[in-house]
Amino acid sequence: MELVSDISLIRGEEELFDRTAHLFVAATDIACAADDLYTWALSRPSLTRQGERLVHDKRIRKLYRPGVLLNEQTAQHLHRLSGLGAQIRIGTEEINETILLDERVAIMAGDEGKAVRSYSVISRPELVQGILSLFETAWLASTTLETFDARFADIRMEAPQMLEFLTTGCKDEKAAKSLGMGVRTYQRRVSELLVALGVTSRLQVDARARELGLL
Questions:
Q1: CATH says 152-212 is which class?
Q2: What digits encode the pLDDT tens for the residues 108-143?
Q3: N or C end of the chain: smaller count of CB under 10 Å?
């Protein structure tokens, strides 16, 4: 058995970017997979301009879950990045939150439930290639931002009211009537909303919506 030494465990985003900022600046090929825009510090609102500057003269690929499109501000941010040249796709399956730099370094986010999130910085070629293969599979199975958002617009407009109905226990019949749609249509939209939020039941909606800043 061979011990792997090309892995560094880093705690917290401040330390992560202190130690890897030079890699982002030097990289010409950046691939990112994340549940939302707040997984990585460079995507936080206070650092949006810095993240946008990285798009120029680089190949940027970003893969997100549908929940990023429920918020108008984050949706506009993604379209702005796309306009600057970044390739952005939306996937409905669970993804490992990962950044790949020039196919040589992989950064993987740890459990976000802990007080200080940890990150693994991996440079071992065999491991990086395996992670890259998983990313490419998820990328090919996803949908372009423009295509996905075109059919997502109605859900985004209805999301605030639907979230209110779901979190207050409003009956489907009453909610559907308030939105001017049939019960079956409403229930289908609720199912689509659950997918967008990345949850599997209505009981999880409140907590997840608060995590995304939708409530």
A1: mainly alpha
A2: 988 766 678 889 999 999 999 999 999 999 999 999
A3: N
